[in-house]
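[Q] Does anyone have a clean structure-token version of this?
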Amino acid sequence: MDRVAANQVDMAGDSVRALAEAAAQDHVVRPRGKGPARPFLAGVGLDRPFFDDKNRAFWVLQSIGWSGYFILRSLSGLANSMGAMFVVHTLLLTATGYSLTLLMASLYRRLITMRAIWTVIISLGTVALAAAAFSFIETWSYSTFLRPDAKPAGVEYLGAIILDFSILAAWSALYYGINYYLLLEEEIDQRARLESQASSAQLAMLRYQLNPHFLFNTLNSISTLVLLKQSERANAMLSRLSSFLRYTLVNEPTAKVTLVQEVETLKLYLEIEKMRFEDRLRPHFKIDPDTIGARLPSLLLQPLIENAIKYAVTSSEHGADIWINARREGRAVRIEVADSGPGEGGGPIDAEGTGVGLANIQDRLAQAYGAAHGFSTRTNEHGGFSVIVEIPLETDQKEHS
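[A] Here you go.
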């Protein structure tokens, strides 16, 4: 008997290890193929988001903006018969605006981290001073290159300040608008990462609650077998427990496995429990082929089987049947764990033990699927208790498409 049990354990362990390795391979992210335009896009920096490199994005926008200013203003002057010297005048103004806005950007990088009121006040003062300097140079250039006979003096040098103030104010608004948008995006991304980490931590905590609960019952049974000097059965149960725990350690606590992997794990778990209850525990599986590739949180169903054993098999002298059924319903998978025990009125579910089980399942479903899941209980046609779980149909093909 010992040799047979050992062979069964080895076969079960090999099966579970193979499934775990397959799951690990399924989760490898396959690199996307490079298209024919990829080298060109990489050469001009368009193979990644524009604002990934903020410094590069600033220089590109700065150059495009002032180049547009030069072209439009030059065309306007030529269209109004201002002569070729107007192009020289416009080139000087473009260089002035380009240089002034570089100095303003250097100051704004410090202002953007200050309190909003100080940022606004200092920025407006900066724009006013820069507009005055811009107007002075524009008036001097106009009198030098276009109207040599004009002799501006005093406040006449501020004759273009309104136009120049408008241009620099618009540039400042665009600068702050883009940078505040990028800061907001960074904050949103950071918040999403923190929420994801918190969700993963909670999922891991819920998953880790299962093992101590299961271990307590199994080790207690092994201890009883040892006291009864049934060493062969105790050794076989330890071997099965080792195979089961090896599987649970291979899979990440927040990972999803296929339904066929979950079923194989349940069978391994039931082999352990069957050594305790023998013919009193009668499991039945009915899994539709369409659902075997569906993904779900690992060890999601084990607490349901544990509850069925606790309240249906343990409490009955003749034991009970346990059914694990799965079928596809549209874009969802319906999984039912049913027993032939006393039903909902037969005893309070999870009234004893460590407080995990149904509540744990509901929490894990909420973390994994949000509102896109179903969870219900009922008295089934066998007079026993049923738990029905409905989850969205997720497969490897969908994830990698």
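[Q] Thanks! Anything notable?
[A] The two ends are 49 Å apart (CA to CA).
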